[in-house]
Design a protein that fits this description.
This protein is of the alpha+beta class. It has 2 domains: about 270 residues, Alpha/Beta hydrolase fold, catalytic domain (Rossmann fold, 3-Layer(aba) Sandwich); about 260 residues, Prolyl oligopeptidase, N-terminal domain (Methylamine Dehydrogenase, Chain H, 7 Propeller), CATH 2.130.10.120. The chain contains 11 helices and 38 strands. The protein has an 8-stranded mixed sheet, with helices on both faces. A 4-stranded antiparallel sheet has the order 3-4-5-6, with no helix packed on it. A 4-stranded antiparallel sheet has the order 7-8-9-10, with no helix packed on it. The protein is globular, with a radius of gyration of 26 Å. The relative contact order is 0.11.
Length: about 725
């Protein structure tokens, strides 16, 4: 790891900030001429003998009026700068037209017995999705939940975060939150009458409602009620799963799973307990998520004992069994595990008498990475990823595994399975085809379009192509790189290019196509995705190769992919932009601090930037399994190495950077991108802009409206085209 740098100690007060603010308003058109400078109030921490300077620690108090003012002035400056890009409005109009080209966008589909379908749908003219139900693919559509009818703070909006129909489909429990905050409140609607019940339960961000077979009660996760003066890091600690009976007072709901309830169930403060119920299965499954760690601890209990005083949970497996996904049918419990199998295997054990250590292997590890398992009436269905292409494996109960036919090569996800219904619903997409919903019918052995997603004129563009290549990283490891562009582009180094990366939690960057991307491709743009280490493209080994001590592989793989695009003349440094979000902020932040000369622009969305301080945020404790903790020397060294904020150097010419935050973000709190913006602005010796874009009605991106997404895309694309020198996007 590098040695912590030092910054000049400057003590600037509120008066200087006010004076700077006044100077920024001197432009003839009234627009600010520069972003407001942030005062430096140095705090120095000592981590195991390493002195680490933090000039903007005070920003961690977002309620400080001075900090609030600084964020608002930064955003005003950014909005003014973006508004002066001449091609932005035309680009926004094109993005909007592409976005509304299909009559509707349908997602989050469930299929129940009797051909009953539930799904979220947003019409082209609407800003948020609504929940619908229909019987039969050609049946009449019924509106179940309209979040626009829910009360919301002035200027804000409500969005559906999750939903769960009862086993018979009569009731739907759902969670909705305002302004992208994810602070969901649970409500229940009767689908037979369309009426909402009086049941409302707050503090239900994780929710995960699970109905009991009686159809009148469900389990749900609820956060603890914080008292005055509670630490920010207490927010997600000590949550529990409760049992709620329709019509009863939620404050009297009995806790059935979680911390402090049973000596047999050991739960740490940062663990998140859930209960899962499955039609036809007489056991409730309790599983403990250890923060963001993929491996779970699992228990079972008789379903009819939930809510009773003598409820006894029996452990099925602990994290040492390396189980990451599960499903059940009858007494058969199916588990997905990477124990001794980096690309995962599927095993089966008896739910009534589980023995995971000696479970039967029904699908051994192979070349393809096993991604998920889903039990239907006829078979267990297994999602796989093989060389970037999705596969669907069908394992008939008592039979041998077979490949299910798919309509085209791309990404495949099981959208819905039910042990009472044969076959599965599939969500499929590729780098050049937009999402569609298919059904696999085991009787015919065919996969057909359900037509639940209406076709749009730009969903399958004939003039767009994708290629899969591999770039050699610094240590010789070959990194998969997906590249999309219009047919016939010249490889002369002149193409505006955006390279996207993530690299955390074992999450894969799967193929997908959004028709709005055409607004970029139509202008000769190239869109590339780097499948860096830390993701899951090659299984758990690929994840571990970009985690904690090995995290530098993530941004160095990303840099290697950027160098490949330049070497192969897709683009050049002056026309290469990079983009990432959330944990991908580590990738972007460390790429621009390690190779500021390589890129023209960087767009860093809701980014983890000050990773050394991340564990002291509300979402920090759950993320310790992935990134580590400063409580140990090794943990500190790993976190310091991956912290972009701590690697910004004075007197360095940085690329043009736009940092983005939603002020309601519960996952990456806004002071992280705020501190990074302030540090870059102070250190930058070049003339390129460093912008901080703040959306006060958004969070981490979940629950944003169509308009918010369109504006975000227009800002990002026009920012890049401006900085790349593309005609029509150069302010006068």
């Amino acid at each position: 790891m590098g040695r912590p740098g030092s910054w000049p100690v400057l003590v600037l007060g509120l008066a200087l900030l006010a004076a700077q603010s006044a100077r920024t308003q001197s432009a003839s058109d009234g627009a600010p001429t520069a972003p407001p400078a942030a005062p430096v109030r140095m705090v120095t921490d000592d981590y195991f003998g390493h002195k680490v300077a933090d000039p903007y620690r005070y920003m961690e108090n977002l309620q400080d009026p001075q900090v609030e003012t600084w964020f608002k002035q930064q955003n005003e400056y950014t909005r003014a700068v973006l508004a002066r890009i001449p091609g932005r409005q035309e680009l926004l109009a094109r993005i909007k037209a592409l976005d509304e080209s299909a009559p509707a966008r349908v997602f989050d589909v469930r299929r129940f017995p009797g051909e009953r379908y539930f799904y979220q749908k947003r019409l082209a003219s609407e800003d948020v999705a609504r929940l619908y139900m229909r019987v039969g693919l050609d049946g009449r559509e019924t509106l179940v939940v309209d979040p626009t009818k829910l009360a919301a703070p002035k200027g804000s909006h409500q969005s559906i975060n999750y939903y769960a129909p009862s086993f018979d489909g009569r009731y739907v429990v759902y969670g909705a939150s305002a302004g992208g905050s994810e602070e969901a409140v649970i409500r229940v609607v009767d689908t037979s009458t369309g009426q909402e019940l009086r049941d409302t339960i707050d503090r239900a961000q994780f929710g995960s409602p699970a109905w009991l077979p009686d159809g009148t009660s469900f389990c749900y996760n609820r956060l603890q009620k914080l008292g005055p003066g509670a630490a920010p890091t207490d927010r997600y600690l000590k949550s529990r799963t409760y049992l709620h009976k329709l019509g009863s007072d939620p404050e009297s709901d009995r806790a059935v799973f979680g911390i402090g309830l049973s000596p047999a169930v050991q739960v740490a403060d940062a663990d998140i307990p859930f209960v899962q119920t499955i039609p036809g299965v007489t056991f409730a499954l309790g599983f403990i998520a250890h923060g963001v760690q993929n491996e779970v601890t699992m228990f079972s209990a008789p379903l009819d004992a939930l809510g009773k005083p003598d409820l006894a949970w029996r452990k099925i497996c602990d994290i040492d069994q390396e189980v990451t996904s599960l499903d059940a049918r009858g007494n058969d419990l199916y588990l997905m595990s990477h124990k001794g199998a980096s690309r995962f295997k599927v095993v089966r054990t008896d739910l009534a008498n589980p023995d995971v250590a000696h479970a039967e292997v029904i699908l051994p590890a192979g070349e393809a990475v096993i991604r998920n398992i889903s039990a239907a009436q006829d078979a267990l269905y297994v999602q796989e990823l093989d060389g970037g292409i999705g596969q669907l494996v069908r394992i008939p109960y008592g039979g041998k595994a077979e490949q299910a036919p798919l309509p085209f090569p791309g990404a495949v996800f099981v959208a819905s399975s039910d042990q009472r219904v044969p076959g599965v619903l599939l969500d499929m997409t590729s780098w050049t085809k937009a999402d569609k919903i298919y059904v696999y019918d085991p009787q015919t052995g065919q996969t057909k379009d359900t037509h639940l997603q209406p076709a749009g004129p730009f969903d399958d563009p004939a003039d767009v192509e994708s290629v899969e290549v591999k770039a050699a990283s610094y240590d010789g490891t070959l990194i998969p790189l997906s590249i999309m562009h219009r047919r016939g582009i010249k490889l002369d180094g002149s193409n505006p290019t955006v390279l996207v990366g993530y690299g955390a939690y074992g999450i894969s960057m799967d193929p997908n196509f959004d028709p709005r991307q055409l607004a970029w491709l139509e202008r000769g743009g190239v869109y590339a995705v780097a499948h860096v280490r830390g993701g899951g493209e090659y299984g758990e080994d690929w994840h571990l190769a970009g985690k904690k001590l090995t995290k530098p592989n993530t941004w160095r793989d990303f840099i290697a992919c950027a160098e490949y695009l330049i070497a192969q003349k897709y683009t050049s440094s002056s026309k290469l932009g990079i983009r990432g979000a959330s944990a991908g902020g580590i990738t972007i932040g460390r790429s621009i601090t390690e190779r500021p000369d390589l890129f023209a622009t960087a767009i860093d969305g809701v980014p983890m930037s000050d990773v050394v301080r991340s564990e002291f945020t509300p979402n920090g404790p759950p993320n310790i399994p992935e990134f580590g903790s400063v409580s140990t020397q090794a943990g500190f060294e790993d976190l310091y190495a991956m912290s972009g904020y701590h690697h910004v150097r004075d007197g360095t010419a940085y690329p043009a950077v736009m940092l983005i935050t939603g002020f309601n973000d519960p996952r990456v709190i806004s002071w992280q991108p705020g501190k990074m913006a302030a540090r870059l602005q102070a250190a930058n010796s070049g003339s390129k802009p460093i912008l901080l874009r703040v959306d006060y009605e958004a969070g981490h991106g979940f629950g944003s409206t169509k308009t918010q997404e369109e504006e975000m895309m227009a800002d990002g694309m026009s920012f890049n085209l401006w900085q790349f020198g593309v005609p029509g996007f150069q302010p006068k």
